[in-house]
Sequence to fold (373 residues):
Amino acid sequence: MSRNVTSSASSPLRLRSKILLLMACAAALSVAGCQKQQAAEKRLPVMVTTQTVALADYAPRTSLTGVIAARTLNNLSFRVGGRVAERLVDVGQHVDRGAVLARIDPQEQESDLRSAQADLDAAQAQLTQAAATYQRQKTLLSQGFTTRRDFDSADQAMKVAQGSVDAAQSALANAKENLSYTELKAGAAGVITARQVEAGQVVQAAQTVFTVAEDGDRDAVFNVHETLVAQTPSSPAVTVTLLSDPQVKAMGKVREISPAVDTASGSIRVKVGIADTPAGMPLGAAVIGTVSAKPVKAVLLPWQALTSAAGKPAVWIVDPSSKAVVTTPIEVLAFESGVVVVDKGLQPGQSVVTAGGQLLSPGQAIEMAGAGQ
Fold:
């Protein structure tokens, strides 16, 4: 009986202890929550970097890769056919005007020359005889010892003989010219860029044997997309830079635009003439052509300033009175290397957050670590 009385008396005490413990925990949690709220209210402003909005001249640039090509390419060929007896130059070799590039076997042309010379000798002998007959008939006619008909016949024979001599001389000149055509000579100084024959081959007249890139001004050739051609101003100045050495530069102007679009690539071939081409830009060298469009007014910001609002480009703007930030949507004109070109959405004099924006939220107070113009 005594044990049951003791147990029933201790139960209220335990219940009271538990209640007091729960009240103490609730008080502690309430104090901790208040401390966190006060700490949040006392949160320090976010340190950011800002830039003052100012309009600047922005000239969009387009850069393409092309190659240096000769302005004039000559396809050289023999004017007579025959077997190539000798080839004297190779691809990449520079040749002077009048230099012999190749020869064909002149046996046939030499034979024609000898035949033409023999025909001329026979015609001249006939002319000599006809001339003597004419002079004799002329003397006899003046003395009355011949008839007018014989004199006219002698005169006609001499004229025919003279015509034969003229024809033989012309044939001889053609034979000499054909013999000279057995040597293929360069019509202008330049570089051999291609050859199509070897010694021992038989070529026909007018068959291309060598291709020569003439010395002089060069062209930079680019394959340009048709939309860029339509947007580029007429006769723009083009800066041509050697790809392997950016220190080698030259200025050029568009000289030729192909009227047809390449169906495979959808591009148009554009040739840029380069006056006084630098020696460092040889044939076939890779170059970069840069064209600058007409300057427009825009705001240039570092790419770190760009954020997003409702899925559209935006920036953080600082309220000068409250030092709080808000997002402002913008229209981007172009993206350059490390720079965002803003067309609309900003006014000169506004402060834009350029660094630290990833830590901000609307209405957040900030402290400017530095400002740039």
User: Anything to note?
Assistant: The longest helix spans residues 2-41.
